[in-house]
Design a protein that fits this description.
single chain; TIM Barrel; 13 strands; 31% helix; 374 residues; alpha/beta
Length: 374
């Protein structure tokens, strides 16, 4: 059976979902409203990982629509990606990196998605012509890497992925190409049942210009034998794998759970890269965002039991102004550093803010009277 056929059998309607998850009549009506606004897709593989008897199962929380999504606190674009959009499907926030939004489809629609405004929906933000992206990249020699994201680029037909790699590999000033994906965790069959895709990745991941696949595993139970096989198949192709985790309330906001995840990632050949503060996205913030104070505690608890490669990740906010690393918390203040910055003058800059018990994002933080900038 092809991976496309299996994907078509995903759970996408409320009636299909009710075979696996029990709802009260009130919940059913509310969840129906949620699905009508933000589509649902759950692969049969991922559904098999969920403990259907546990209403608080962390994997269930990430993928099954909830009445909590009716809470409209937050913004659909808290990092203001629109401000960095050059043309549909092309963002250029940092000098060295161009981001391509190649699709609005994913194998499964995560309920915490920070691009909830477009994923699974008709959108004008998706790339229309690869030739336009290629022309822009060729004209900007400061760009040394491209990140292909979406949606999930591995939901594109294999021939389209080949086209991206053929065209981008012709740009001499690109040192590497990245794919951002959740597919190894959600739908490993995409890699295990498509030898052509693996051959293409192997062809273009060369000694002098590697293909990087940035995975997103958020919970240790997502690292199954099938997921591990998918990761191994990518490693055999010469692809380099890093992982970005989103810190999520009720999923991995526990030092032991987060630490176990990092250890398992390293054991299968995936290097931890970032742990992201959950963005204050509308229909997401209320249900998933951990406070910055608690987030820092969880990260430090996890790191206390880690060593070497498993503790290389940084705890960051992906903010409009850049990737802001949370360096420390103490005495009612939070210590921050620009790990990456839209304005290059901010690169490496340390600064402080007052930290309240409920603060979860930079805009919530008041300027510290004692020391604003270090």
């Amino acid at each position: 059976m092809s991976w496309q056929n299996e994907l078509r059998k995903s759970i996408q309607t409320l009636e299909q979902l009710k075979r696996y998850v029990k709802f009260t009549r009130t919940e059913e009506k509310q969840v129906k409203k949620v699905i009508e606004r933000h589509p649902m897709r759950i692969t049969r593989y991922y559904m098999s990982l969920i403990d259907q008897d546990d209403p608080f199962d962390p994997l269930r929380k990430m993928i099954v629509p909830s009445v909590e999504e009716l809470n409209l606190a937050g913004s659909y674009d808290p990092s203001n990606e629109k401000a960095n959009t050059i043309m549909p499907g092309i963002q250029h926030k940092y000098p060295q990196t161009v981001l391509i939004l190649a699709t609005n489809r994913c194998a499964g629609y995560c309920r915490y998605c920070f691009r909830k405004r477009l994923v699974g929906l008709g959108s004008q933000e998706i790339l229309r012509r690869l030739s336009s992206a290629l022309k822009y990249i060729e004209e900007h020699e400061e760009v040394n890497n491209v990140l292909i994201s979406g949606g999930d680029p591995f939901m594109l037909p294999t021939r389209v992925i080949r086209g991206f790699l053929e065209e981008l590999s012709s740009v001499r000033h690109l040192n590497f190409i990245r794919f951002g994906t959740r597919t190894p965790a959600m739908f490993p069959d995409r890699f295990l049942e498509d030898e052509e895709l693996l051959a293409i990745l192997q062809k273009y991941s060369k000694k002098t210009r590697r293909i990087y696949v940035v995975t997103q595993f958020n919970h240790p139970r997502e690292i199954t034998d099938r997921a591990t096989d998918a990761v191994s198949s990518l490693i055999k192709c010469g692809v380099v794998l890093n992982n970005q985790t989103v810190l999520l309330k009720g999923v991995n906001d526990d030092g032991d759970v987060l630490g176990k995840l990092q250890k398992k990632l390293v054991s299968i050949g995936v290097i931890p890269y970032y742990v992201f503060q959950c963005r204050p996205v509308k229909r997401v913030k209320h249900q998933f965002q951990v406070t910055l104070r608690r987030g820092y505690e969880v990260v430090e608890e996890a790191k206390a039991g880690l060593d070497g490669h498993s503790k290389r990740f940084r705890y960051v906010m992906s903010h409009l102004t850049g990737k802001i690393e949370v360096v420390g918390v103490g005495l009612g203040e939070i210590y921050l550093k620009y790990h990456q910055a839209k304005d290059t003058a901010n690169l490496g800059r340390l600064f402080t803010r007052k930290l309240g018990w409920k603060d979860g994002w930079l805009e919530n933080l008041k300027r510290s009277p004692s020391q604003v900038r270090l």
